[in-house]
Write a structure and sequence with these properties.
heterodimer, A: alpha/beta, Elongation Factor Tu (Ef-tu), domain 3, 14 helices, 22 strands, elongated, B: OB fold (Dihydrolipoamide Acetyltransferase, E2P), Rossmann fold, 10-stranded mixed β-sheet, 15 helices, about 25% strand
């Protein structure tokens, strides 16, 4: 028997207070029936004696105190799942949104999930080839990793996520792959771009979408990534699929969270975001991973737009502390029409060392990216120096590094959104660029590797063979 | 046992639950909350209302459900079986939980911290009839190939020992009895309990006297930490805090390592779990796991348990220190711990101080680090134990004026400052040599067997630091007027400091040889780099062109000295002879 109450006592912002409620449970959900018969959904944020504080996902506009009926459903927020969710589009609250048939649920899963026991985790170490040199060569992505894209307004993160969804494969394996896409407060255009791209490649059949657009209720966004990850967990750990989850855009999610926090009159942390933002984000990001004894995996690529391109803004800052690295987009590269405009120096993949090397990519991979980084970093420094003192004041060596940096950006970084490079191509390209330096300058590379892979030595070898 | 007190829930707000009918409960008593029997701790009392921080997710809990007071403070179990374990923040064994509940953590499951079934062979070292007091060692258990676990008399127990016998026991079996003067009897077990929020007793505290060798060149040479010392590693994300912590956990010269993953990534703990059993301790040749204990309360696990995790870790570390061992504790990251405090404090509606952190933040941080130290352990035989604490700090945006960083810097004696700038250049460990500091430098020379070598190392490290300092000044000039204007000697200084940075301070944690450098090898390497500098200076005086010096073939050998294995260390000294030869040749041709 579900309990119904008509005892709403106050409404403010997205929050509603219901009184004289018998034994409500924290975290459970409610249906709110308005005077006109329409239904809204809410979740219990706090219970104190018989008073219950509810956050209303669709917003409180039009709700009145006297005519609304609140029904306590005595269960947490749940997603109905079955293998048929593939290829479907849902709202931000997990209701089917497309024209497809009604879903017959195999079961309902609590969207909050449970933390994975650290002992039960399996370490992510399978290299994913994305076909993008700046990722594969310098910041390799591995299965089970969470690697966000730090973007900014006006930067082409949508193109990159689409490219990732299109190209990402694990070398030499034909396994089941799925994409889960959660849109939080992005525009119709951005969402449509992604959907169209998937449709064109046929990948849409292997995708599940949860869409909360910019004009959909903001509070709903708090639930959207949780629905998406619940679907991903189901696909990965029950149906043995390798799932790529794209969350776009986490900044909007955090803003919704801030709205609730402000409405509850909580002590704000930095920039008005609640003090528990870190913990809250962690409950989302940490759901990526691999589990011992399970075939599937969840790899996560959250996208966030940094306000004013500021990396120290709380959203990118806290994200960076939880995720295993970050891919940062650069406005100046974008202006120079370098695409994808990945800012190589501050980008990082923390799990790279476990996913590369002999047997995974190639033995020279680690030394090679260290050297490319060091050389590019020096080149950029020299470039800065040159803007102050003019190129004439540079030493010969410095000029060489500057030339390297330019070449690196135009050849290695810039590849467009439709070129799919294999890892060998990416690595060989790196060697080709480094061939302008003498061995003694390549301090980060083992001398044996230089002799084996450097084009000038390889040429010698082929000549000798002749 | 008295009847357990029972109250009922009136309010649930996230991890904080308020219960009524709790009159008589004490602060920091552990309680079981709701029908699921979640574990919680009382953090506030108002009349018969108690505020409870709950260590598990509270979804589905509501008013009216029972709260039972266990009347015990949050404690850990100490005894054989700790080594090689992985626990959550309140010492629940994650491996056993995984076997019971599967890969996802469910709620309300309690398992004892120590295995109750496993039998250990106990060998007494005292005879029946011996008078014993708290901390006295009464026997031993060979726990792992690396550790002889000493069984000590628990605090507050004193008297004559009886019925102590050698044999195989579980941790809760009776191994003997202590009869007090008034006739009261206390049974001894292999296991004892200790409340985590209290520091364990010691006889006397001592100052540091030795450094803790870590095998990390920038740390050991310039900013060493003492055995019993405290250090902090602050830095923005991506600068390698965790890699530094992992490197220390791997290579540090300690008998026991306790690694607390506090509110950090799950995959990092998995990394430790998969890697440590495979890595060999350079001192003993045994797998590193045989001296390690892990506490993993990852960021998505309940926040209140995260608050408790550092205390759980340090209490276990103190217990091993009390056996007369050298223990190192790594806490990654103390910022997450502070945030957990802040979150609980906010839910309790306490008045916040800076950035929403509670006013008691700095006091809590200080008292945590103060639990480190070199001590004379309680009880007999006389023994000395050390506990060194290394905390990572993750300041928002890398801003060192953050409250947690500042509160930490007030107490710690070593500061390893990680810089984003260095990390972008892939200079790892990204410890900034100009802003970091250590108060333990004077003990460095003590770690060489050869006294002269110790003195020499001190001189070398001062000279190297001087060059690095000079480099930062010279670079200012270069930035203004270009490198051409520098004198040959200055140009050489720049080149040598670059060599110190790139060939010495830069250390690849993932290279099998480079990951660990013994003190002797550090000495040889630094000596070689500075030897080159000295010889080059002499050559410049003999009017050799700097460009010719920089082109010498031997420089490549200097660059690659770090990859020379420990066994072949003689080769590094040979490089110095080659330097002499090649320099002589240069001077000859110049003259």
């Amino acid at each position: 028997m579900l309990k119904e109450y008509q005892t709403v006592s106050s409404i403010s912002g997205p929050l509603m207070m219901v009184e004289m409620v018998d034994r409500a449970k924290y975290g459970h959900i409610v249906d709110i029936e308005l005077g006109d018969g329409s239904i809204r959904h809410g979740q219990i944020l706090q219970v104190e004696n018989d008073k219950v504080l509810v956050q209303v996902f669709e917003g409180t506009r039009g709700i009145d105190i006297s005519k609304s009926t609140v029904r306590f459903l005595a269960r947490p927020l749940e997603l109905a799942v079955s293998p048929d969710i593939l290829g479907r589009v849902f709202t931000g609250l997990g209701e089917p949104k497309d024209d497809g048939p009604a879903l017959l649920a195999d079961k309902r899963i609590d969207v909050n999930g449970s933390p994975i026991n650290p002992y039960g985790r399996d370490y992510p170490n399978e290299f994913i080839q994305t076909g993008i040199s700046t990722i594969d060569g310098l910041n390799p992505l591995v299965r089970g990793q969470k690697l966000p894209i730090f973007s900014g307004a006006g930067l082409p993160h949508d193109n990159i996520t689409a490219q990732l969804a299109r190209q990402a494969t694990v070398l030499g394996k034909g396994e089941e792959f799925a994409v889960v896409f959660a849109a939080m407060g992005i525009t119709f255009e951005a969402a449509q771009f992604f959907i169209n791209d998937l449709q064109n490649t046929g990948a849409i059949e292997q995708a599940v979408m949860f869409v909360n657009l910019a004009n959909d209720p903001a509070i709903e966004r708090i639930a959207t990534p949780r629905f998406a990850l619940t679907a991903a967990e189901y696909l990965a750990f029950e149906l043995d699929m390798h799932v790529l989850v794209i969350l776009n855009d986490m900044t909007n999610y955090c803003e919704a969270l801030r709205e609730i926090s402000a409405a509850r009159k909580e002590v704000p942390g930095r920039r008005g975001y609640p003090g528990y933002l870190y913990t809250d984000l962690a409950t989302i990001y940490e759901r990526a991973g691999r589990i011992k004894g399970k075939k599937g995996s969840i790899t996560m690529v959250p996208v966030l737009t940094m306000p004013e391109d500021d990396k120290t803004h709380p959203v990118p800052d806290l994200t960076g502390y939880i995720t295993e690295g970050q891919i940062i987009l650069s406005r100046s590269l974008h202006r120079k029409a370098v695409s994808p405009p990945v800012d190589v120096l501050p980008s990082l993949s923390r799990l790279k060392d476990k996913g590369i090397g002999e047997g995974k990519t190639r033995e020279d991979h680690a030394d090679l990216y260290n050297q490319l980084y060091a050389a590019y970093s020096r080149g950029k420094e020299v470039e800065e120096l040159a803007t102050i003192m003019g190129e004439a004041a540079l030493s010969e060596e410095d000029k060489k590094y500057m030339a390297f940096a330019k070449l690196f950006e135009s050849k290695y970084v810039c590849q467009g959104y439709y070129e799919n490079r294999t890892i060998e191509q990416t690595l060989d390209l790196g060697w080709e660029l480094l061939s302008m330096f003498d061995n003694v300058e390549l301090k980060r590379i083992d001398i044996e590797l230089i002799e084996k892979y450097m084009p000038r030595f390889r040429k010698n070898k082929t000549e000798e063979a002749k | 046992m008295s009847e357990k007190k029972q109250g009922s829930i009136v309010k649930v707000a996230g991890p904080v639950v308020v219960a009524e009918g709790m009159m008589g409960a004490r602060m920091y008593d552990v309680v079981r909350v709701g029908k699921l029997s979640l574990i919680g701790e009382i953090v506030e009392l108002h009349g018969d209302l108690a505020s409870i921080q709950v260590y598990e997710e509270t979804v589905g809990i509501g008013p009216g459900e029972p709260v039972i007071d266990t009347q015990e403070p949050l404690s850990v179990e100490l005894g054989p079986g700790l080594i090689e374990s992985i626990y959550d923040g309140i010492q629940r064994p994650l491996e056993s939980l995984y076997k019971v509940e599967g890969e996802f953590m469910s709620r309300g499951t309690t398992l004892p911290g120590l295995n109750r079934e496993k039998k250990w062979h106990f060998k007494p070292v005292v005879e029946n009839g011996t008078k014993v007091g708290p901390g006295d060692i009464v026997g031993e258990v060979k726990e792992t190939t690396l550790l002889m676990h000493k069984i000590m008399v628990p605090a507050g127990v004193k008297g004559t020992i009886q019925k102590i016998t050698e044999g195989d026991y579980t941790v809760v079996d009776k191994i003997g009895v202590v009869v007090a003067e008034d006739g009261g009897k206390t049974e001894l077990q292999l296991m004892q309990k200790w409340p985590v929020r209290n520091a364990r007793n010691v006889k006397r505290r001592l100052g540091p006297d030795k450094i803790l060798v870590t095998g990390q060149r920038v740390i050991d040479t310039f900013f060493p930490i003492a055995k019993g010392g405290t250090a902090c590693v602050p830095g923005p994300f991506g600068t390698g805090k965790t890699v530094v912590q992992h490197q220390l956990a791997k290579w540090v010269d300690a008998d026991i390592v306790v690694y607390v993953g506090c509110g950090e990534r799950g995959n990092e703990m998995t990394d430790v779990l998969t890697e440590f059993p495979e890595l060999k301790d350079p001192h003993s040749g045994e797998p590193l796991m045989k001296r390690s204990i892990l506490i993993a309360n990852t960021s998505n696990m309940p926040v209140a348990a995260r608050e408790a995790s550092v205390y759980t870790g340090i209490t276990i570390a103190e217990y091993f220190r009390d056996m007369g061992l050298s223990v190192a504790l790594m806490a990654d990251s103390t910022s997450r711990w502070a945030e957990a405090m802040r979150e609980i404090s906010t839910r309790l509606e306490e008045m916040p101080a800076e950035e929403g952190y509670p006013a008691y933040l700095s006091a809590r941080i200080a008292s945590f680090y103060e639990r480190a130290g070199r001590v004379e352990c309680e009880g007999s035989p006389e023994r000395e134990g050390t506990l060194s604490t290394i905390g990572a700090v993750s300041p928002p945006g890398g801003d060192l004026s953050d409250s947690v960083v500042q509160a930490t810097l007030h107490v710690v004696k070593v500061f390893w400052s990680l810089q984003g700038r260095l990390a972008y250049q892939r200079h790892f460990p990204a410890i900034d040599w100009l802003t970091s500091y250590s108060f333990y430098k004077e003990y460095q020379k003590g770690c060489f067997e050869d006294k002269e070598r110790g003195q020499d190392m001190e001189r070398l490290s001062i000279e190297a630091m001087g060059l690095l300092e000079q480099e930062s000044e010279l670079l200012e000039i270069v930035r203004l007027v270009g490198a051409e204007s520098l004198s040959p000697a200055d140009r050489l200084s720049l080149e040598t400091s670059r060599s110190i940075r790139e060939d010495y301070l830069h250390q690849n944690a993932f290279h099998k040889v480079d990951t660990y450098t013994s003190m002797d090898k550090q000495y040889e390497m630094l000596k070689t780099i500075l030897h080159f500098h000295k010889q080059a200076l002499a050559a410049i005086d003999a009017s050799v062109e700097t460009a010719d010096i920089f082109k010498l073939e031997v420089r490549e050998k200097v660059v690659r000295a770090k990859y020379i294995p420990q066994e072949d260390m003689g080769q590094i000294a040979q490089i110095r002879d080659t330097i002499d030869e090649q320099m002589k040749k240069l001077q000859g041709s110049a003259a």
